[in-house]
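Q: Given only this backbone (168 positions), what sequence would you predict?
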């Protein structure tokens, strides 16, 4: 719709799904925060991605939760167990170009799938799938893992409490 109506720059946010078209009026890319999974009410971030004609979609087990008999459950189900995914990840953000039709949907599907896979399998998939995307994985052990294609478009958030690493 942006292209159809001649809109050169703007962004749309649907919670964990963001589409950034073009650049800001000053020519800079859009700055999109990746929410801190343990401090969402305080609006803290684990980092920021700078986007131009791209999607960023996040899946995490920290917003849609309930507690039953002292056990907390989230909404991302591992089909192998029928229970919420429990594999060391607490958040996965997928970033891909908006130039290809369907990439927003692809990002949404991949953020959930990679969350279920866990860190090792998610990175293996990123390296070998043939899909054009990058990822930011937030782990239970306090790390933020950024794939190489985002290295120059990612900024750490000061005071997040996480350590950061880039993988290739």
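A: Predicted residues:
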């Amino acid at each position: 719709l942006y292209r159809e109506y001649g809109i050169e720059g703007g962004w749309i946010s649907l919670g964990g799904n963001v589409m950034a078209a073009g650049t800001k009026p000053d020519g800079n890319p859009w700055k999109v925060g990746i929410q801190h999974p343990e401090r969402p009410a305080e609006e803290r971030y684990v980092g920021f991605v700078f986007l131009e004609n791209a999607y960023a979609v996040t899946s995490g087990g920290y917003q849609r939760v309930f507690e039953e008999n002292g056990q907390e459950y989230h909404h991302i189900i591992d089909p192998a167990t029928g229970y919420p995914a429990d594999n060391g990840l607490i958040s996965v953000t997928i970033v891909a170009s908006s130039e290809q039709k369907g990439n927003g949907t692809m990002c949404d599907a991949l953020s959930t799938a990679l969350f279920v896979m866990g860190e090792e399998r998610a990175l293996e998939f990123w390296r070998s799938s043939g899909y054009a995307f990058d990822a930011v994985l937030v782990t239970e052990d306090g790390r933020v893992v950024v794939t190489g294609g985002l290295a120059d478009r990612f900024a750490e958030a000061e005071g997040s409490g996480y350590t950061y690493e880039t993988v290739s």
